[in-house]
Specification:
- The complex is a heterodimer.
- In chain A, helix 14 (525-534) runs antiparallel to helix 15 (537-544).
- Chain A has 16 helices and 29 strands.
- By secondary structure, chain A is α+β, with helices and mostly antiparallel strands.
- In chain A, a hairpin with a 7-residue loop joins strand 20 and strand 21.
- Chain B is an alpha+beta fold.
- Chain B has a domain at 148-453: Clam (outer membrane lipoprotein receptor (LolB), chain A), CATH 2.50.20.10.
- Chain B contains seven helices and 19 strands.
- Chain B has helices at residues 2-15, 26-36, 63-69, 88-96, 128-139, 171-174, 441-447, and strands at residues 48-49, 76-78, 102-103, 109-110, 148-158, 185-198, 222-229, 240-246, 254-259, 264-268, 297-309, 320-321, 327-328, 331-344, 351-359, 365-372, 377-387, 411-420, 425-435.
- In chain B, 58% of the residues are buried.
- The chains are: A alpha+beta, B alpha+beta.
């Protein structure tokens, strides 16, 4: 189906382009056909976006887009006063993404360079992802820089074991690699033991490879599909909208794939929550009209005029019967992929590459002949047949993102609500109620890997697999060399549930894990009990990390239904000529991430409000013929059940204020339109500014050029890593003092808009409309 | 005989004073009016005025307009418009409520019900109070239930050049080509529907207190609701405006706009009314000649003038011609007009003053001009009308129209053209498929409700 639609879209572009070139210049096409009146209009555009931030410039996106809007309109059909069949078709192609190696300076598909927020993937930038536990060997003569002291564990083992070409590693990048003191993380300095130089960088796959993440969206898309924006956020591509419109008296019905827009706020969405939005294509720089994700919705609106003291009454009922769709964050390899999209790719890769049992490759065949090794033929990848999922990178313990728990497509999981709009005196108001799943993903630890010694004091000595003695003098530990057998021991223990593993682990529910540890009498029992008493799991995770009590865990993405009530109104103040817009919403039991919870999941009442002010204003010295439209807004998201501080708990502040300002000017009879905006996010102290000018040459041709720049968000970039604290490098070195509040996983949230600061861009667009 | 000839020569000389936009002041305009008030026409019904005879008509065309309509190749047919007075219902209401309306200290009208509130025959030139009376006569002129236009074109034309290559000339099978003859470079053309629905002062509704729905519910306290939409080009398609004007002259209008890129209705500030509408040379206040709120200005009655205008077009839709493609090719009737001078009060208003000419008999406007803040002539407006009772009004050749009841007796809005003399450009606004349909409240609730702005989008 996807191939068919892809082929259709390519054909549509070719056909439409040739039609546009050959046909006489026409405005909207309007003909009598299909028994009614058929209208067709749209545009063809080419937009080039160059990244200019971060000290490097290259073509980031070059999008060719065709949009066709067609409708067949009828009057007086049966009971219908009007009846229309409408579609919006929009195929597109990002040439910079698809030909990245050739025209995007080695980015994107086929490229070998990282993205705006990435670094090359190697041992220095991500020692754990690259070399697994190899970094433990750092400093041991002959084993400096993790020279493969372990045969398995870490992505580079594919290369070391002879299963991958080294160039394959160029298909990964490393993100969120700021050290605790803000400098760039580097393994060499981090392993010096200075906690301020610690880090937990993440590697991200960039080539759309298939990853073991059940029902995960936008993780392993086909690269051509990514280039065509045909992903999990654009179902039924290239049909963007497809619906039937009908009016019967005072009733208006619309059924089909559509956008429904409530609310009065620009840039942000309080009541405007029916459709999710795709922020992964171009952040919020494109209009919501273009990035709102149309859904299959049935809408019925009844206009009933006046009622009591109110006039212009209308009530709209909305039923979103589409399969649930969350917010779009882009594919990890996309030019504007959101940091959370990249992290999703990371943790899906963790699950794919690290959860599996380890195995050896062709380069280790000699071990079979070595009587000193315990290697058997079964230790080799693929030796167990076609279903052998093992990989040299594996650690044999569940870790990473295993599935996205999207609501199943069934009647009970559809969404819906109503809005009542009316005028009362000077105010134009709207009240809304909507029941829906949160479209922002919430990560949940559904299991953590508990070192058995935490549960059984008899195994306490085995908590540190290599022990301080090894690190100090290379002596063997407990009669077992700290080598590959350690890795296999994990697997063996898991497989036999009580076998001869060196460091046995038990996979447990996070809440049960902490309770069990508290009851276990082990070295961290008191800490676990304190965490339970204070309802702060972060105390336990970070406090016990150096003792390797919990070795990561496996996550999923959760969604939960909540109810949102909204109120908005606008008011015109005549003396100043100013329009005031106020909008507010309260969401009850919104699912949120809280790293003080054992599984990172919590609920909160969330109130959002916004005040906007609009005023067309004469600035005669700039334009004596036309006013400037000036608009400013203050927006707040208030988490009423907020918990935590700047580095633990919620990754947002209790209040998150955002201020926006924008202006639109008009020159040359509105044919030249400069537009500028400025956004400030208070919590992260980050800024976005943009400016562009569009020139409408005539009824068909227009050009537009401008820039976007992001800065700030540097003041706080760290959040506690919970069960991932054990993966913070240095790994347990120096114990207490390690800084487990890191750039990943949620530090990027503290950076806010600033997390994309390296993606400043210049852009230029040519458009032909018809 | 010699004296008459001399007098005519002097008048012609004054009338023929070359128009230099930057040197033409409001005082010059007033002087022209005064100089030509007593002029007698030297043409008769049926005459065709060509350029060599242009001096004959100069005393009857405002000086600043002459360059626009008098040119080599002109073809101006003189034809009396006949009786274009409003309906008997309007006349009856005028008579019934004569003397009832009053002007308050701030200029607001009070105690008005229906009909023409004040007798213009009693106006005194130079009177500010009569200026207020004029504007309320204008606001409550006979408009039936309100104008509906199924397709308004907004044509941005620039002086010189030609427009044969513009897509409007080939759109819809080239059906508009016949209307855009002559020269002038077309830069951009917008299109869309329009409708005003009058809800109070309805002389045709004596049985419901001269109000729609007896002034209750949706029509409560409302003078009119006005919808303006745009269907092309693509970048503006779907944009629409709704304006509510209230009965209380002191109450500001409420306005909303649907912005397609937001898919949302946005309340807009009344300040926009004095701003250019979407880059045209009109402001929202310039529709019809004047469409603003009287209390935002001061008014002074100037006097009467006999003016040639396209008062009763011989064609259904305006045919443009001339070197710049902005003159109407049509019959011209000599009309007695009341002239008023408007003084904007908002400091940000782009005009320093504006003159508006309205027809004494019908109350409709045919001419206007505006001066910038420096007092220099800036824009001129010409408005062309077609009579609803004429046979050719019944059938719109290019755009489907709604039926206009027999006996509506309206000088229907055929086109309004504004010429920006300083920037040598203009905006032509021909209105096709126009009508004065009977409007039921249920229709208004469907199409002139704020919520309608999002419907079908």
């Amino acid at each position: 189906m996807k191939r068919t639609l892809r082929a259709f879209s390519i054909g549509a572009v070719a056909l439409s382009s040739s039609f546009l070139v050959s046909a006489p210049a026409e405005a909207r096409i309007q003909i009598d056909a299909l028994g009614g009146e058929v209208e067709i209009n749209g545009f063809l555009s080419s937009e080039a976006r160059a990244r200019v931030g971060g000290g490097e410039s290259y073509l980031n996106q070059w999008i060719q887009r065709l949009q066709i809007e067609a409708s067949a309109n009828y009057e007086d059909v049966g009971v219908f006063d009007t009846l229309s069949f409408v579609t919006v078709v929009r195929p597109e192609f990002d040439a910079a993404y698809y030909y990245g190696d050739d025209i995007a300076s080695g980015r994107h598909r086929g490229g070998d360079k990282p993205s705006y927020m990435g670094s090359p993937f190697n041992f220095q930038t991500d020692p754990v992802g690259f070399g697994g536990f190899d970094y433990l060997c750092n400093g041991v003569p002959g084993l400096e820089n993790g020279s493969g002291c372990f045969s398995t564990g870490g992505i580079n083992k594919f290369v070391q074991q002879g299963l991958w070409n080294p160039a394959e590693l160029n298909n990964f990048e490393v993100i969120l690699n700021r050290a605790a003191n803000g400098t760039q993380f580097g393994a060499a300095s981090a392993l010096s033991g200075d906690a301020q130089l610690s880090g937990f960088p993440l590697f991200v796959p960039l080539d759309g490879r298939e990853l073991a993440c059940r029902r995960c969206t936008n993780v392993d898309n086909d690269l051509l599909d990514i280039a065509m924006n045909n992903n999990d956020s654009t179902r039924l591509y290239p049909f963007r909208e497809l619906y039937v419109d009908a009016t019967v008296g005072d009733w208006w019905f619309r059924v089909g794939k559509q956008q429904i827009v409530w609310g009065k706020t620009d840039f942000f969405r309080l009541q405007d929550i029916i459709n999710p939005v795709d922020f992964g294509q171009h952040f919020f720089f494109d209009s919501f009209e273009d990035i709102r994700i149309p859904q299959w919705i049935a809408s019925a609106q009844w206009k009933f005029g006046d009622w009591g003291p109110t006039t212009d009454n209308a009530i709209q009922f909305v039923w979103n019967f589409d399969e649930f769709q969350g917010i779009g964050l882009g594919n990890p390899s996309g030019g504007w992929a959101h940091p959370f999209a990249k992290e999703k790719g990371t943790f899906a890769a963790f699950n794919h590459y690290f959860s599996v049992e380890p195995c050896l490759g062709p380069n280790s065949l000699a071990l079979l002949q070595d009587p000193a090794s315990n290697v058997t033929p079964d230790a080799f990848c693929g030796s167990r047949g076609p279903g052998d999922q093992r990989a040299p990178s594996g650690f044999g313990q569940p870790v990473g993102l295993s599935y996205e728990d999207r609501p199943e497509y069934e009647l009970g999981n559809t969404e819906g609500g109503a809005r009542w709009e009316f005028r009362l005196g000077e105010l134009h108001l709207a009240l809304s109620a909507y029941s829906a799943f949160n479209d922002v993903p919430v990560f949940r630890f559904h299991s953590v890997n508990v070192a058995q010694g935490q549960l059984d004091p008899g195994l306490v000595a085995a908590a540190n697999p290599c022990g301080e003695s090894f690190l100090q003098n290379g002596a063997v530990y407990n009669g077992t060399a700290c080598n590959d057998e350690l890795i296999f021991a994990y697997a063996e223990y898991l497989a036999t549930d009580g076998g001869a593993g060196v460091v046995p682990i038990t996979v447990m529910d996070p809440n049960q894990a902490i309770q069990a540890i508290a009851a276990g009498g082990g070295p961290n029992a008191a800490l676990a009990q304190q965490a339970l008493d204070e309802d702060n799991a972060a105390l336990f995770y970070t406090g016990s990390a150096s003792g390797l009590a919990v070795l990561g865990g496996q996550t999923d993405i959760q969604y939960q239904r909540s109810q949102t009530l909204g109120l908005s109104f606008d008011y015109f103040e005549s003396f100043t000529g100013t329009v005031f817009r106020v909008e507010s919403s309260v969401t009850i039991d919104e699912l949120v991430n809280n790293t003080r919870k054992a599984n990172w999941v919590d609920e909160s009442e969330v109130m959002r409000w916004s005040i906007g002010i609009d005023r067309p204003t004469w600035i005669k010295w700039l334009n004596k013929d036309r006013t400037f439209f000036l608009s400013t807004q203050l927006f707040d998201t208030w988490y009423l059940d907020h918990e935590g501080d700047k580095h633990t708990g919620y990754y947002t502040d209790e209040h998150n204020f955002i201020w926006t300002f924008f202006f639109i000017g008009n020159y040359m009879r509105d044919r030249v339109t400069p537009l500028g905006f400025l956004v400030w996010e208070e919590a992260s102290n980050s800024w976005v500014a943009g400016f562009n000018t569009e020139w409408k040459i005539d009824n068909h041709w227009s050009v537009k050029g401008g820039l976007h720049t992001i800065w700030g968000g540097n003041e706080n970039f760290r959040h506690d890593s919970g069960p991932f604290s054990t993966f913070v490098v240095p790994f347990g070195a120096n114990g207490v003092g390690n800084n487990y509040a890191q750039h990943s996983v949620f530090g990027a949230a503290h950076e806010g808009i600033g997390a994309l600061r390296a993606n400043d861009e210049l852009f230029f667009q040519v458009k032909y409309q018809f | 005989m010699i004296k008459t000839s001399l007098r005519l020569a002097v008048l012609a000389a004054l009338a023929a004073q070359p128009l230099v936009g930057s040197a033409f002041s409001p005082e010059d305009h007033m002087a022209w009016i005064k100089a030509n008030q007593e002029a007698q026409p030297q043409f008769v019904d049926g005459d065709t005025i060509t350029y060599d005879k242009a001096d004959l008509v100069r005393p009857f065309i405002p000086a600043e307009q002459q360059e626009t309509v008098l040119f080599e190749g002109m073809d101006m047919k003189i034809k009396d418009a006949g009786d274009v007075s409003p309906t008997d219902s309007y006349k009856a209401a005028t008579e019934k409520f004569a003397g009832q309306a009053t002007i308050a200290a701030d200029g607001a009208i009070e105690n008005y019900t229906s009909g023409r509130p004040f007798d213009p025959a009693t106006f005194t030139p130079g009177s500010e109070e009569d200026g207020w009376k004029w504007v309320w006569n204008w606001m409550y002129r006979w408009q039936s239930a309100g104008l509906k236009v199924n397709e308004v074109h907004w044509v941005w034309v620039r002086e010189g050049g030609e427009h044969s290559g513009h897509d409007i000339m080939t759109a819809d099978g080239g059906q508009y080509k016949q209307y855009y003859t002559g020269g002038g470079n077309f830069e951009r053309v917008l299109a869309g529907p329009y409708q005003r629905v009058l809800m109070s002062g309805r002389a045709d509704l004596p049985d419901t207190n001269y109000r729609m729905n007896n002034g209750e519910g949706f029509a409560k306290n409302t003078n009119f609701r006005e919808y303006t939409g745009f269907t092309s080009p693509f970048d503006i398609a779907g944009t629409a405006f709704l304006i509510l004007r209230y009965d209380d002259p002191r109450k500001p209008d409420d306005s909303w706009a649907y912005i397609p890129s937001l898919r949302r209705v946005r309340r807009i500030s009344v300040e926009v009314k004095s701003d250019s509408l979407l880059g045209t040379d009109h402001t929202l206040e310039d529709f019809y000649g004047f469409n603003g709120r009287p209390l935002e200005h001061k008014w002074q009655y100037v006097g009467t003038a006999r003016i040639l205008a396209v008062a009763r077009s011989r064609t259904r839709d305006t045919i443009y011609y001339g070197p710049n493609g902005w003159a109407p090719l049509d019959d011209w009737a000599l009309r007695t007009m009341d002239v008023v001078q408007m003084f904007p009060q908002r400091t940000g208003h782009p005009y320093s003053t504006k003159f508006i000419y309205s027809d004494r008999e019908s109350g409709e406007s045919f001419y206007a001009n505006a001066f910038d803040k420096a007092g220099e002539l800036w824009k001129v407006w010409q408005i062309q009308k077609v009579w609803t009772e004429d046979p050719h009004f019944k059938e719109s050749p290019v755009i489907k129209q709604d039926p206009t009841p027999e006996g509506t007796r309206m000088l229907a809005f055929q086109s309004i053209n504004v010429i920006d003399l300083q920037n040598k450009r203009g905006t032509l606004v021909p209105c096709r498929g126009n009508s004065f349909p009977t409007v039921e409240l249920s229709d208004v609730k469907k199409t002139h409700d704020v919520n309608y702005l999002t419907e079908g989008r």
